[in-house]
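Lecture notes, unit on binding sites. The following record was shown on slide 14. It pairs a sequence with zinc ion.
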Amino acid sequence: MIVLDPAHGGTDTGARGENGVAEKDIVLQIARAVREQLSRDAYRVLLTRNDDSNPSYDDRAALANAYRDAIFISLHVSSTGTPGTARAYYDQFSTPIPQPSVATGPGAKPAAAPPASSLAVWEQAQRPYLDTSHRLADLIQADLAQSFSGSPSASIAAPVRALRSVTEPAVAIEISSVSGSTPDALAATAGPVAAAIAHGISALRQTSSAGVK
Ligand SMILES: [Zn+2]
């Protein structure tokens, strides 16, 4: 099961090009085409939205969290970056894992208490999956780098709120760009993006099962 997340929607247009292209529309168009291709590869694919709505981050995550062994892929088109390049991201938490308070050195402050509210715990949901998400992001990025020349060879760690509440491997893919690429060129990225997702997932499965033995 692959849960594809066309980012933004509704009043949240995402990035906007001078040509009037809105990220929210392009990512939906790309997600639909990616779904079509991945379905032909015998993947089950769900979209977090299939219209101009804007579900909350938690609603989007809940769709993936309802399935065992799902993969969550959030799709973005940026306003910056070299046109025709693509990047895969995994989430990077801005706060360290809460640890028992051990003060070291002069002026050390006691560590903050672990989060007490369920909301804070929910926002840590991705943490146990970060290593797998990182591996998947690297595998997808290696493939993207082949199809989109000028793209980095490794994935990027960044605080990505869309991934944070997902209890599955979760990666964001960002394509450049709404202002530097034509709508047709952006739509045409769906094929190589779908291939990169499929190759990344199958490579991840192989390395995971080899590691278990
Ligand atoms: Zn975006």
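Take-home: DSSP finds seven helices and six strands in the chain.
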